[in-house]
């Protein structure tokens, strides 16, 4: 039986994504100076105001230096996104920093010590997913939704006189056949901020080729199936149009609703937080399973207890597409990768300033190294041979 499935994405200029970018910029600044720093940074953005709050930990000498560099780094990030509007300008917004020292109770549970491995930063359950719908082993609807907005941002930034603004959203509804494979687009929605002089016709003419270039041949829709700025006007956007908060786009960040999301948000959290590192490790395992040809679809779940290093559970579901027993696979996964918080960070090289590029267009389905050495390491398929050998 055929069906429709929809996913959405939002651009780097969406107010929540501005906050994700700021939080990850702060994280990268800490990791640049102190790879073992602890960071949990939350951001609020609204009309001409950016506010930071959360917990951090670094050595005293480094902490003073880092704190002095936070405001310039945040303003540079907002400038890179493209905000120079009267009511939200990278040089003029009011900046408030309420970051404070990490709780000693949390530190006691997380830090390693005598006869004690480093524990997880919190309890929680994390999911990873991969499927063979696209060449990056991601669900098609979220993958194409991200790519449209990413290409649109590149077009905007390449033209100093662009009619487009930084804030935009995409949504794609795909048709799936009775084998569960996508066969084409049903409806496409694209809303983008624009300058006051631009007409809907101008915007439609500009964005239509971008959308068509992203979709596979024969998938493009026309007429009423292509909805561009359906409200008619989108001049006021970004944090001036709607307040933003870190971590409000977790389904956009992951699999567009095609797979479960456990735990919490990613942005602003250092990789000792398993909300982030274990979600990345779960994706890494799932992607390598599919890349190895062991299944067409794979969901991985890993769960932790605060202060405990080893996962309390590991679950693999191949959705009836597997060429190996699920239980045997679960045993092999534990042999192939150390899934303690420190083991994950070391395997994937996560104690580095690599997180700002993850804050928009998805944490998964990216090219490993696309934003610099070590970035998106969880998208590597370098575990394939190890997995196959472990199962044999």
Give me the secondary-structure topology.
Blueprint: E1 3-10, H1 15-33, E2 38-46, E3 49-57, H2 60-81, E4 84-85, E5 88-89, E6 94-101, H3 104-110, E7 124-131, H4 140-158, E8 164-176, E9 182-194, H5 200-214, E10 226-228, H6 238-241, E11 244-245, H7 250-253, H8 274-291, E12 297-304, E13 313-317, H9 326-336, H10 341-348, H11 384-391
Parallel strand pairs: 3-6, 9-10
Antiparallel strand pairs: 1-8, 2-3, 2-11, 4-5, 7-12, 8-9, 12-13
Helix pairs in contact: 1-2, 4-5, 8-10, 9-11
Give the percentage of residues in beta strands. Answer: 15-25%
**Biggest beta sheet attributes:** 4 strands, mixed
Mean pLDDT across every amino acid position: 94
Order of H and E elements: EHEEHEEEHEHEEHEHEHHEEHHH
Helical element count?
Answer: 11
| Helix/strand/pairing category | alpha+beta
What is the terminal separation in angstroms? 36 Å
Form type: flat
Query: What radius of gyration results from the CA coordinates?
Result: 21 Å
Strand order of the largest sheet: 1-8-9-10
Helix content: 25-40%
Low-confidence stretches: none
Query: What's the total number of strands?
Result: 13
Provide a short characterization of the protein structure.
Helix content is 34%, strand content 23%. By secondary structure, it is an alpha+beta fold. Helix 1 (15-33) packs antiparallel against helix 2, helix 8 (274-291) crosses helix 10 and helix 9 packs across helix 11.
Considering the chains and any ligands shown, give keywords for the structure.
392 residues; alpha+beta; four-stranded mixed sheet; 11 helices; 13 strands; 23% strand; flat
């Amino acid at each position: 039986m055929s069906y429709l499935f929809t996913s959405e994405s939002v651009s780097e200029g969406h107010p929540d994504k501005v906050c994700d970018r700021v939080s990850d910029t702060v994280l990268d600044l800490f990791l640049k100076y102190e790879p073992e720093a602890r960071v949990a940074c939350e951001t609020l953005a609204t009309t001409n105001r950016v506010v930071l709050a959360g917990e951090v930990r670094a050595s005293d000498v480094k902490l003073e230096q880092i704190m002095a560099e936070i405001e310039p780094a945040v303003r540079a990030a907002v400038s890179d996104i493209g905000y120079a509007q009267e009511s939200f300008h990278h040089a003029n917004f009011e900046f408030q920093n309420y970051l404070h020292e990490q709780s000693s109770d949390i530190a006691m549970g997380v830090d390693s010590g005598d006869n004690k491995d480093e524990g997880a930063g919190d309890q929680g359950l994390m999911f990873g997913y991969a499927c063979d719908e696209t060449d990056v082993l991601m669900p098609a609807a979220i993958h194409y939704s991200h790519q449209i907005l990413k290409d649109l941002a590149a077009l905007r930034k390449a033209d100093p006189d662009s009619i487009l603004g930084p804030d935009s959203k995409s949504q794609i509804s795909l048709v799936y056949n009775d084998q569960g494979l996508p066969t084409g687009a049903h409806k496409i929605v694209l809303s983008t901020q624009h300058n006051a002089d631009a007409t809907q016709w101008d915007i439609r003419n500009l964005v239509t080729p971008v959308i068509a270039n992203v979709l596979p041949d024969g998938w493009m829709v026309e007429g009423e199936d292509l909805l561009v700025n359906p409200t008619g006007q989108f001049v006021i956007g970004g944090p001036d149009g709607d307040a933003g908060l870190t971590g409000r786009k977790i389904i956009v960040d992951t699999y567009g609703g095609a797979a479960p999301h456990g735990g919490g948000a990613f942005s602003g959290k250092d990789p000792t937080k398993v909300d982030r590192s274990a979600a990345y490790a779960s994706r890494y395992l799932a992607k390598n399973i599919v890349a190895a040809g062991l299944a067409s679809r794979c969901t991985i779940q890993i769960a932790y207890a605060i202060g405990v290093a080893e996962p309390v559970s590991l679950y693999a579901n191949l959705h009836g597409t597997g060429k190996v027993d699920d239980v045997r696979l679960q045993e092999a996964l534990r042999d192939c990768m150390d899934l303690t918080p420190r083991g994950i960070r070391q395997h994937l090289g996560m104690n580095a300033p690599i997180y700002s590029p993850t804050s928009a267009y998805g944490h998964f389905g990216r090219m490993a190294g696309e934003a610099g050495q070590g970035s998106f390491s969880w998208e590597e398929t370098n575990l394939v041979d190890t997995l196959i050998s472990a199962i044999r």
